[in-house]
Each structure stands twice: as structure tokens, then as C-alpha cells.
Sequence to fold (507 residues):
Amino acid sequence: MTGFADEMGKGYTFEGQVLELGVGVEKEEIVAGAEVRMPLAMLNRHGLIAGATGTGKTVTLQVMAEQLSDAGVPVLVSDVKGDLSGLSTPGAPGGPAEKRMTGLGAKFEPQGYPVEYLALGGIGAGVPVRATVSDFGPDLLAKVLKANDTQHQSLTLVFRYADEKGLPLLDLSDLRALLTYLDSDAGKADLQGLGGVSSQTVGVILRALATLEDGGGKEFFGEPQLDIADLIRTDGARGVISCVELPGVGDKPALFSTALMWLLAELFEQLPEAGDLQKPKLVFFFEEAHLLFADATDAFLESVVRTVRMIRSKGVGVFFVTQSPKDVPGDVLGQLGNRVQHALRAFTPDDAKALKATVGTFPTSPFYDLEETLPTLGIAEAIVTILDENGVPTPVVRTKLRAPRSRMGPADDVNGAAEVSPLFAKYGTRADSQSARELLAERIDAAAPEPEPAAAEAEPAPKRRRKRAESVGGGADALGDFLTSRQGKSIQRQVVRGVFGLLRKKL
Fold:
């Protein structure tokens, strides 16, 4: 059963596996002492965990991640402060968690969970997570670079050129080399059929790339790229919790929030259609979600909305974690039917206005005046509403939330745990494959004039050109000849760019 129900079975009840969130408090008989639960079958309908700083959002996320793992559902969490790394370690007996569970009339059973520690580009502790520039795509890159519409369009054109010419953009040095080439006389001639890119725009993008390189992009972009299948694993019965450790990139919000969106978009692009499942394939918790939407263009927001709307059909649930529902654009918020709303304070007129706006996003409650209730919620209390079997939001319930069974704080040796993971052997060492930078260098070298041979060694011009063609793989256009060679064919791909311009490869 799920929803909320008292011992007499009143309230909302459904069949299937559930998450035990806590117990209802105050007001009507139907709510007081009721068990507040969330059905696994509804978790791919997405949700929101919101509330002011220090009200318990991260702990709520931890409780949900634990129970999802117990149900065999893999979880992906972004660990901004480092506290969620403690999911791998049993909680301490006799501490605040046990006291809280005793107060709820439940037994405290400490337990650690299977956790895989990941780190963007290896910045900080964890298995390095990397993406190629080609796969990241122009839309997400434009978001990180804070590009305007003109620069965004120019990046899209540059990526299209790279696709058509078979130039793999693996890291930022590849993109820098390609931009520099396209700003040369030869490059401008190549781009004429696609519209061209102005030198001024190239200069702006190159300067933004330098900032991105210093801000973590040099480490994040490259190979080997993370295989999304490594996020959807179990240790037998329990789902593996992939914990993206972000304390090391806390001062790089544009990069880490957009990189997390890349992971979500990769899941959408690669997973097959799943339909309605009894439990999701994976649940993704997106902490500090407001950073994703800051300074976002309309095109980027449209892509986020489209991804969130459609990814549920792939069996993936998404929970945005942030301070206020107002941090999430309306078109996204409208898709978040499962809500855990912690306290909101109203110390200023602006706070009071935000409180009123938040109340307006919840279903009408026969039990509570939310405008009065939300500011009075204590730590680890929340207003909860879920979707019923028909996708209709249930009335809200004031809830005392359960405590985690794992440690509420950092694990002891995250880096040590990451280094003994099988994934570290797969992703720990950066690869340096042949890419656009080398191919462009070959093209420039091939186009350079050859020194005239000595008179005694002089050969007829046609014969000399034929020999040169054989030595470089065929003629003046070395890049074109490379792409028709056996080596070139191994990297050529038919490409389709998905919802965020991510590169889909078809050999």
C-alpha cells in the first residue's frame, strides 16, 4: 500500500512496492499517525524536493535513495556538499537517526549501501567521468560557455562541419584547433557553403573556451567517455547508488550542472522505450537544480522540458532538489507530480510573496492551510503529495520523515573506495586517440609547398605529384583523402544529433 493511510485503511492506498517516507501529523483522523508512502510505479513521473537551507532536503534524498536501492532500483545522485558519500557506511547507533526512528515508533537498523563514487573529470575523489566534446554537443556547450544566440548558432555550424568532415572533437584542444582553422583563409573557404563564422565570434568563443579550460573543462572533456550502462547496475539484489562527488567543482556551477544534464540526456538517448513499469530502471536526483536553469537560453530550456517529459517512457525518474519550486521553470515544474516540500521561511516581503506562489503550486488541502503550515515546519518535516494510480495528485500531508539507515555525513575514504572499483580500471586513465587536432595538422602540413628537388634529382611534375599523393594518402586535400582511407573509414560515422545535439554514433 502507498499514499497515506491510518491503521483502519483510510486514505489513499495502492498495490505494489513503496517507499516509506514517514508518518502524518496533526489535523484529521485520516492523517494523524498515517503512514506516508510513495509508490515505486509512480517514481518515473518525476518529483521535487524543496525547502530552505538546513531543513532536511539532503536527508530526504538519502532516505529515498536507500529504499530505492533496497528495492533493486539503481540511483544517480549529485553530492554537492559531500554528505551523501556516507550512504556506503552504516549509521551510528545511539545517534540522532536512532532517536528519530524511536520517536516514530520504528526500529533503527544501521546499514551501508552499494555506492559507486564518480567525479567529473576526476576533479576530487571518485572514478573520473568524462565526455567528448562531440558527444556533449553544441547546445550544452553553449550553456556552459554562456553563449548568446549568435555564438550558439556558430557553435552548431562548427559541430556540423566537424560531423561532415569526420573530425572527432574529443577534448577542448580539438575544438580550439578547429575554430582556429575555420578562421583561416582555407577554413573560411570550406565554410562558405554552410554560412561562415565571423572572426569576432570565433575570438569570443576561443576566450570563453580558455575560461572553461581553467574551470574544469580541461579535465572533464576527453576519453574514455562514461558508458551510461555503468549507471544502471545492481550488486545482485540491491541497486547501485552512483554518487557524483561535486565538492571539488562547487565553484564551477555552470560546468557541473550542465554535465549532469548531459548524463540525463545520454540516458534518454540510449535507453529503449520501456512503457509503464512496476518500478523505474533508475532514479536521478538533481541537487542544486536552480543552477541548471540560471542564464539558460529559451532553446536550452525547451530541450530540458522535452527531455524531462519524454524520459519517463524510458523508465527513468527525475527528482529536482532545490530551495524553492520557483527555481524550476513552470513547464518543468508542471511535470513534477511527486512533491516533498520542506519549510519555507517568510522573513521579508519577498519571502512572503515566494511563499504564496509556492502554495499555489500544490493541490488544495482539506486538512491544512499551507500558507500557515509551511513556515512552521521543523527540521525533517515536510508537506508531501504524490500521484495516485491515475496520475492525480493526492491531498498534502504534513509528515515527520524517517531517518536514514546509513551515515548522515561524509564517508571516511572516498578516494580509496573509488580506486578499488572495477570502473577505475576502465576510466581512471585518460586516453589520447587521434582526433581533429591531429587531422587538421596533417591537412595543413599536406597543403604546405614542397621544397624544389636538386637538379640532379628533378623529376617530371606529374610523376612528382603522383609520388607525393602516394606518400600522404592522396592529393592536395589530405583530409578528404584521409577520410576515404582505411584508417579514416574507421572513424567516419553517420551521425544524428538528439534532443541536446548529442552525437549518436552509427558505424
In short: Residues 3-130+224-412 form a domain with the Rossmann fold fold (CATH 3.40.50.300). The longest strand covers residues 18-24. Confidence is low (pLDDT under 50) at residues 4-11, 461-494. The CA atoms of residues 157 and 195 lie 8 Å apart.
